[in-house]
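Researcher: I'd like a candidate sequence for this fold, 277 residues long. If you have to choose between options at a position, lean toward the conservative one.
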């Protein structure tokens, strides 16, 4: 509603948040609400503005650092956003992740923003001030999303908010991305480092904060995450992390996933959502 009351002034909505915060489902639900209010959002994917793999800077581990803003062609992205906000027709690139490069320009799709439309951008760097600095700040509506649990284990131990996202990602990666828990455990420190460097410093710029945390989700994730964490062998370097997560999950009575509504943000990680991803 805050976006629609500024209809005509707001030309782009930027959504950012850490890994497994539920950004994709939030975008789907926000899209439905905006359509109900007569505003049509048009999505622009930051992933399509990745530089060719050979041009992406390397991280400390010697691998391409896809978390860094420098991995994006920010000059091209800013130019396209500025022109779209002005109402111009723009040919939008498409990145082929298998080839690690953009498809030829003749395959780019043309996009144009009309008066009853807003540009919706979702990604790691959605709140970064270097994203389209030429666009007037009043024409942007910035949303920060995170899973901020309100549960505590006892009077002395709170539940870290990142732990819920960690469990979400373990379940999603194992179910739908072909990655075992051991792989997710290995990647997580790098993911967290990227969040602390490229996402959290800019959360204070947001116009709205959305909490995607659910009181019941740890109980739902318990059985699934438990099963996948048990697959981590004792010889794995991250076995101790898996063990600590298993001990943490012992505090919860499991709830069957069939009790989760189809439009819940948790379905983004469990599957069987009413939204297409």
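Model: Candidate sequence:
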């Amino acid at each position: 509603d805050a976006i629609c009351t500024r209809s005509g002034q707001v030309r782009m909505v930027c959504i950012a948040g850490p890994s497994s915060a539920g950004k994709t489902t939030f975008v789907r639900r926000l899209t439905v609400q905006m359509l109900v209010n007569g505003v049509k959002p048009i999505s622009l994917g930051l992933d399509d503005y990745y530089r060719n793999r050979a041009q992406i800077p390397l991280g400390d581990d010697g691998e391409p650092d896809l978390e860094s803003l420098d991995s994006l062609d920010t000059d091209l992205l800013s130019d396209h956003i500025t022109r779209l906000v002005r109402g111009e027709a723009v040919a939008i690139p498409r990145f082929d992740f298998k080839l690690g490069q953009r498809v030829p320009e003749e395959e780019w799709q043309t996009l144009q923003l009309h008066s009853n439309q807003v540009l919706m951008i979702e990604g790691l760097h959605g709140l970064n001030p270097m994203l389209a600095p030429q666009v007037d700040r009043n024409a942007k509506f910035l949303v920060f999303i995170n899973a901020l649990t309100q549960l505590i284990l006892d009077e002395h131990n709170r539940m870290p908010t990142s732990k819920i996202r960690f469990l979400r990602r373990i379940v999603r990666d194992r179910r739908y991305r072909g990655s075992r828990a051991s792989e997710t455990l290995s990647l997580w420190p790098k993911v967290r480092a990227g969040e602390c460097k490229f996402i959290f410093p800019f959360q204070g710029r947001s116009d709205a904060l959305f909490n995607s945390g659910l009181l019941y989700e740890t109980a739902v994730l318990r059985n699934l995450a438990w099963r996948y964490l048990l697959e981590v062998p004792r010889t794995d370097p991250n076995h101790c992390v898996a063990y600590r997560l298993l001990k943490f999950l012992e505090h919860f009575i499991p709830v069957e996933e069939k009790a989760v509504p189809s439009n819940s943000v948790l379905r983004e990680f469990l599957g069987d959502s009413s939204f297409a991803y």
